[in-house]
């Protein structure tokens, strides 16, 4: 693999363009990349711990959710002893890595996107195959991974030169940012490249060492990312890839006294467990562990009587069914003013009927599979509950095919206390609820323990003002869909049970990975 050169002065940040695959040459390149990665399907991947490869013979197998008989990768799983070694070695190497000059760390971080960009179609293909993303969704994920690195490299340049402090007479006063130590990076499967890359590179560029515990659904993408970190020049012991289930090695990594921080993105229940375990000091531990936990959502879109209904229906459908509703930002609740409710539900029905479901590698499909057999069962169970709690308007069952396919499902007339209105389903299921007016719609939207994303469609400036003030979410969108946050423009993170609101892709994100030190010198 070539290592593209990186200029020490980084140009202004610009978001990576997302490929729509509308050009025949791009569509052809995508299929060629899939052919190339398919030749690697079923390959074995070793662990990367303490700067060396390890095999345990105990293999985790990942499959293509569009075609579960197709094995994507076989991954050696870490034993508890290896997981312990991973964190202890990351801790032991931290003093050396943390002294790496900041320019060098920025240079390595900026090489990561250069390498991913060179292999973009190939990464797209891995995401299509292992995560069940359609080509467009896969390219959006890969583009976001690129953006996170480009953005954090530039933020690190800024952080390396903090604003001057007030100078006391006769003193030189300054504040510098120190890395924390060895951290655990725990990403979810739904943005298997972007979120893993963002959390990892943020931790590394600020000078921390890391142990990546990838999702058991998408370990191949994690193994490919580890190759990129190597190629970008990150030292062999600055990161470890510790594949294994959350229950087998997750708790151990979180609880270990040498773990300094945990950067987690995933479900509410796992996030809360990590937060609880990390809070308890262990023998030999001399710090309070920092937990960055970005968790679930039950995101709502309000459709007002003064909205452009056509655009609102398109926004709701895209937010609810893009990547099969498996985005933390996905719209799972449409809250619609009673004056336009029936008309809006009809529009939804028409648009949902146009959605195609099938293998994600086929560009004709708007929706691919859900991630696993377990997820499919849970989602279908929720659909059955929803049928009792409301009126089925579209979908309502599995879709045909060998993969984990589910029809895009819309259930109307849902009460705000219903389970499908309150619980995160994480699949292609949209609840629709009637509101008396805009104020009532805001009340319903806020009637949740989550607070991640939300959108309001209205042309009324006073209602827009109200939404800005009262819609209690970390990411609010007005007259646009509630998915598709862009690095730099829409710093991402939620309130309440949606997490610690770390605002990934925002100007303050790197602060989670450092501790500021104030130095006053008498002169
Ligand atoms: P998950 O089940 O919570 O798993 C997330 C990660 O935690 C996986 O790597 C998982 O490993 C690991 N894990 C599980 N148990 C653990 C334990 N005891 N200790 C340490 N790690 C453990 O979530 P998911 O199904 O992958 O992802 C979907 C969820 O993520 C949804 O709730 C979604 O809303 C949320 N999400 C939030 C954001 C955000 O920015 N707020 C972004 C994306 C996704 P295994 O795979 O081995 O179990």
Number of helices: 15
Q: Gyration radius, to the nearest Å?
A: 23 Å
* Major sheet summary line: 7 strands, mixed
Low-confidence stretches: 1-7
Overall shape: it is globular
Distance between the termini: 51 Å
Q: For the residues shown, what is the average pLDDT?
A: 97
- Identify the strand order in the major beta sheet: 14-15-16-13-12-17-18
Which structural class should the secondary elements be placed in?
Answer: alpha/beta
List ligands, each type once.
NADP nicotinamide-adenine-dinucleotide phosphate
Helix content: 25-40%
Structure, described:
With 523 residues, this protein is α/β, with parallel strands linked by helices. The protein has helices at residues 24-38, 80-98, 102-118, 120-131, 135-159, 194-205, 219-231, 246-255, 268-279, 309-321, 341-353, 373-389, 419-422, 438-445, 461-470; strands spanning 43-45, 47-49, 52-54, 59-64, 67-76, 171-179, 182-186, 209-212, 239-241, 261-265, 290-294, 299-303, 331-337, 391-394, 409-412, 429-435, 453-457, 475-478, 514-522. Strands 14-15-16-13-12-17-18 form a seven-stranded mixed β-sheet, with helices on both faces. A five-stranded parallel β-sheet has the order 9-8-7-10-11, with helices on both faces. Helix 2 packs across helix 8 (246-255). The chain starts with 23 loop residues before the first helix and ends with a strand. Residues 1-7 have low confidence and may be disordered. Bound molecules: NADP nicotinamide-adenine-dinucleotide phosphate.
